[in-house]
Every structure is written in C-alpha cells, then in structure tokens.
Design brief:
The complex is a heterodimer of chains A (330) and B (288). Chain A has 330 residues and is an all-alpha fold. Chain A is 74% helix and 2% strand. Chain A has one domain. Chain A contains 16 helices and two strands. In chain A, a hairpin with a 2-residue loop joins strand 1 and strand 2. Chain B is mainly alpha-helical and 288 residues long. Chain B has eleven helices and two strands; from the N terminus they run H-H-H-H-E-E-H-H-H-H-H-H-H. Chain B has helices at 3-34, 41-59, 62-85, 94-115, 141-163, 165-175, 177-182, 187-209, 219-234, 239-259, 264-278; strands at 131-133, 138-140. Chain B has a two-stranded antiparallel ribbon. In chain B, helix 10 packs across helix 11. Classes of the chains: A mainly alpha (330), B mainly alpha (288). The interface between A and B is large, with 39 and 45 residues.
Chain lengths: 330, 288
C-alpha cells in the first residue's frame, strides 16, 4: 500500500504516469477546489451537488482515520450528527448567528470525538470497530431520550437560515447555487486541512502506525496519543460536515446518528478508495449519484447499493480511485 | 418498592439476558474460530425471526418454526461463508467485517421486499401463553420457556465442544489452524460448520425473541449493538464471558427499566464504557 504522497522516487519520476501522479499529488488541493467549482454544473440537480459536498467532506475526514491511520471506526455518524444537532439547537433555541453556530458544532463534535477516541483507542484490532459502534449508539439513544432538546424521533426542526451576511453583502441562502458556493468554502477548508495534515510529520506518523504499529512504537512514536489525535481530527472534520448538512437541510434527522449512517460513510470511503486523497470524495459522489439514480427506479435501492458494496469488498478493495492509481497509472 | 416487583423484573432481565446470551454466543464462536466479526449477525437474527414466523404460519405450529428456521438460516449462513467470506481469508481483518456489513444492508432490504416494511406481530404459541405462580409471584410461561431453551442449548453446546471429537477439532483449530492442517484436518470444512452454527444460534435467538417483541426489518440493528456490548464486556471469543455478560446486561437493563425506563438502553452502553476503562480486554478476555 503506497500512498500518492510517497511515490516520488528518482527512477520513477522519469516515467510519464508517475510524473502525472506526483503533479496531481502536489496540486491536490487546488485541483479538488477546481473540481468542486464545476461540480454543480455537471450533476443533474443542485441539491445532489450540495449533498456530495457534505458527504465528501465527511468521507475525507473519516478517511484520515480509516485510510491513513488504519482504524476502522463504525461510529463517525456520532460526530456528524452532534455537529448538526449543536448547530441546529444553537440557531433554533438560542438565536446564535450561523457562523458561531457552525463553530460551536465543530467544537462540540471535536470534544465528543476526543472522549470517544480516548475510550476506543484503548482497544485493539477488531474490538475497535465494535466499541466505536456501541459508543455511537449510546449517543443515538441519548438523543432519542432527550426530545426537549433534539426533537427525539421526529428529528430537529425550526432553525432555517434564510440569509447570510458576508462582509456587508447579503446572500440569499435559499438559492441552491449560493448555498453550494458558501458551503464549498467549508469543504475546501477541510480538504486543505487534511492535505496539510498528511504532508506534516504527523501524517507520516499515522501512516507508520497503519503499516506496522509495533515498529512505529519501537521508533519512539507515542502510538496511543497519535491515534487519539488522529481520531479527534477526523471526528472534527466529520462534525464540520454535520454542521454543513444542518445548514443545508434546516433539519437534523435522528437517523443521522445511527450506526447505519456511520456504515454509509464507510461504504463511500471504500467505494472511492481509502488511503488515497481523492478516493473518499469520489466515493461520496458515486454513492450519492447511485442513490439518486436507483431510487428513481425502486424504493429498494439499498439492496443494489449493498450488493455493489459487497462486490467491491470482494473484487476491488482499493476502490475506484485506488484501483485507477494502481492499475492505470503504473 | 416491594420485593415481588423487583423479583419479577429480575426474572424478566434473565429472560432478556438469555436471548442476548444466545446471540452473543453465535458472534463469539464465529470470531473465536474464524477471526471474523460478523456484522450481519443482527440482520441474520432478524431473518431468523421472519423465517420462524413464515414456517410457523405455513405449518400452523410454532414448534416447527422454532426447529426448522434456525437450521434453514444456519445452512444459509454456510452458503454465505462458502461464497462470500472464504475468498477473504488471508486478507485484512477488516475485509470480512466490511463485507458482512454490506450483506446486512442487502438482507434488511430483501426482507422489506418479501415481507414489507411494517412490523408483524409474532403470536405466542397457545400452549405457552399465560402466567405461572412460582411462589414469589406470577411469571409469564413463555419467558420461563425461553430461559429453559437457552439453558438447554448452552449445555448442549458445552457438551459438544468439550466431549466430542468435533469439539476437540474446533477448539484445537481456534488455537492453531496451521497445525490442524498439518495434522490432516480439513479446517475449511470446520470453519463452514462453525459459521453455520453461529448463524443458526443468531436465528434461534430471533425466533425465540419473536413473541417477546414484534418482528420488523430494523430489529437487527439494536440486536447487533447489544451483541457487541455483551461480547466486549465478556471478552471476545470467550464463551463463559458471553454467558455471564449476557445475563448481566439483561438484568441491568431490566432493573434500570424499573427505576428509570428512559435510561434502560443507555445504561448498557455506559456499563460497557466502564468495563473498557477498567479491563479493555473484557471481563474474561485475554490480552492480545
């Protein structure tokens, strides 16, 4: 498993695909922002584009933990949902301005990620997935049992953001194109942050832990603290995605906290390709387009998406982008 | 609060725990032997409940449902192992987990297509309805029956694992599969049977729990989370751990329901968090 960041070797750089790969890696943030700018004009509906933006951000944040640190969490819906709920409650019940509500959602999600990470990173291997799932379900049931705050089973409503004041300009947030480009700023920020993390020594440390935990420990890395930091950063970016979805939908469904939502994030990441920078975003795009197309034919689109996912695990475990990188770009 | 009520609730907890025990045992046996965490366990529990309901309505007898459905779904589980999970041995430990998660999606949606999205009531068999006076209070006969069946299954499982040649192979295979291959045992056949057994246990849990809660396509989600909590508390791969943790969780849930009903599900997860803080490997687990 080589990540795009590590493929630059003198002999390989002479070859054309390798040069293409290193160029793509070098300019990955501007390239993805360019792609995001074009996205709403390539997809059938603007609402779908906003969804891709939100879940792309979530999947990229999730992949920091899954693809790069090698920890398979089944609890990231907890951070997405918490970010969304805190933003919704702050706007709807306390009248906080939207940008402060977003900040509060992100900080709340980060704190929860820190606590859940501290508990779950104590466990190893397969336990980790089970514990993250169970802790996230705890958050789900807490939200279900506190309807005065969260609206319980009906979800949280009543916090529509109509207008956004930006440096004196008033932007109509109900217009889907405006909404897309405002939320795109957050997505771009998340992409830049993840890219920055991966280029840092910390990024090398998490990949070292993924490849060989024991060796990383012997090399003097504090494995526990690194895992916890990676977990927290990943949860924070997912919470940002959650606040974006709250702004977009003006509604937080209770199901956004359920482990099946965590599973959806996992599916998107794997479909696109874990341990590659663009993979998760591509996975979110493909998953949501599939949902959009198949749900036109049948209300049972999940059986098709589930089957495709099973086939991917069996035959294309590197996902769409990962397979493209290893097969075509060699 | 009178003691009678507390005793009643305690017994309800044991009955609830019995279902948890049988579900978690299936999960634990599969993990102990194959090293696979079956994320479709909850979905197969649900499929088992539907299969039991279907067979019962076809034959007009609950007993056929109880007997046939677990065997049917167990064989289905063997097919899953053979076709889907077998190609993943030797790959990352996460791969079977991801695959079974995708499979649970397919199973839930498949049941929705066949039986509809709404819940279906699962009638208690007429011979097991009513209550019986045990001296300290009246207990529902069906719950006593559930505890009895689970006890019987646990004893049979223990005898099968400890006293038969197949059990010896299973235990040895869990410890060192390579050595078993060297000794000429076709370990893949053992894995096939163990996976079928684990899935069969899940669907038996599904059929048994049918009359206690209604049957719906989403019921597996909570069951999976419960089974995870039980195995994490008991220690993954430890059968004794699954049994004790299952009963413990069942009792804790129903005692909490007596004092603070809205906390009943939450307290189970809190219990798990406490165990994780004190013993990350579970009460009966060994350190990896």
């Amino acid at each position: 498993m080589t990540s795009p960041a590590l493929t630059v070797s003198p002999s390989a750089s002479a070859r054309k695909p390798a040069r293409f790969k290193s160029l793509v890696t070098k300019y990955r943030v501007p390239l993805s922002i360019l792609a995001l700018c074009l996205l709403p004009w390539l997809l059938p509906s603007k609402a779908l584009a906003v969804n891709v933006l939100i879940y792309g951000t979530v999947a990229v944040g999730y992949n920091l933990l899954f693809g790069y640190t090698g920890l398979l969490s089944f609890g990231h819906a907890a951070f997405v949902g918490t970010g969304a709920y805190i933003t919704g409650i702050a706007i709807g019940q306390f009248g906080v301005p939207w940008y402060l509500a977003v900040l509060m959602g992100v900080i709340g999600g980060a704190l929860l990620a820190f606590v859940m990470g501290a508990l779950s990173t104590r466990t190893r291997g397969i336990y980790f997935s089970m514990v993250t799932l169970a802790l996230a379900q705890l958050v789900y049931y807490v939200a279900l049992q506190t309807p005065s705050w969260t609206g319980g089973e009906n979800g949280l409503r009543g916090f529509t953001v109509n207008k956004i004041n930006l440096f004196g300009f008033e932007i109509n947030f109900l217009d889907p194109v405006n909404k897309y480009y405002v939320l795109m700023v957050f997505a771009a920020l998340a992409l830049w942050l993840v890219s920055r993390i991966l280029n840092s020594p910390f990024g090398a440390a998490i990949e070292a832990i993924r490849e060989n935990e024991r060796r990383a420990r012997t090399c003097g890395y504090n494995v526990e603290r690194t895992k916890l930091l990676s977990f927290t950063l990943s949860g924070t970016i997912c919470a940002l995605g959650g606040t974006m979805s709250a702004l977009h939908l003006a509604f937080v469904p209770l199901d956004s906290l359920h482990y099946l939502s965590s599973g959806m994030i996992v599916m998107m990441t794997l479909l696109g390709g874990a341990s590659s920078f663009f993979g998760p975003f591509i996975g979110a795009l493909v998953f949501l387009v599939m949902e959009d197309v198949f749900s036109l034919w049948t209300s049972h689109w999940q059986i098709i998406v589930g089957s495709i996912f099973v086939l991917f695990v069996l035959f294309l475990p590197k996902g769409i982008w990962g397979t493209f990188l290893t097969r075509v770009m060699r | 609060m009178d003691t009678e009520l507390i005793l009643m609730q305690l017994f309800s907890g044991v009955a609830l725990g019995a279902i948890l025990v049988i579900t978690a045992l299936g999960l634990s046996i599969i993990f102990g032997m194959l090293g696979v965490v079956n994320f479709a366990h909850g979905a197969l529990f649900m499929v088992g409940a539907y299969a039991g309901l279907w067979v019962a309505s076809l034959t007009g007898s609950f007993w056929w449902g109880l007997l046939v459905a677990p065997i049917m779904i167990g064989v289905f589980g063997m097919a899953i192992e053979y076709v889907l999970i077998r190609p993943l041995y030797g790959r990352s430990i996460d791969d079977p987990l991801l695959l079974t998660f995708g499979l649970s999606y397919v199973l839930v949606e498949g049941v929705r297509i066949v039986f509809g999205s709404d819940g279906i009531p699962f009638p208690t068999p007429s011979s097991l309805t009513g209550v019986v006076d045990l001296g300290v209070g009246f207990f529902p006969i069906y719950r006593i029956f559930v505890v009895g069946v689970v006890f019987l299954v646990v004893v049979l499982l223990w005898l099968g694992l400890e006293k038969t040649k197949f059990g010896l192979i299973v235990r040895a295979g869990a410890r060192d599969p390579t050595m078993m291959k060297v000794l000429g045992v076709d370990i893949s056949k053992v894995w096939l049977l163990v996976f079928g057994l684990g899935v069969g246990l899940a669907s038996l849990g599904g059929v048994l729990s049918g009359p206690m809660r209604s049957v719906n396509p989403e019921m597996g989600a909570l069951v999976l989370a419960e089974a995870f909590v039980v195995t994490v508390i008991g220690g993954l791969g430890s059968l004794v751990g699954s049994i004790i943790a299952g009963l413990l969780v069942g009792v804790v849930i129903s005692m909490t329901a007596l004092f603070a009903p809205e906390m009943a599900t939450i307290v189970m997860f809190a219990l798990m968090a406490i165990v994780l803080l004190i013993r990350p490997q579970g009460l009966f687990g060994k350190l990896a």
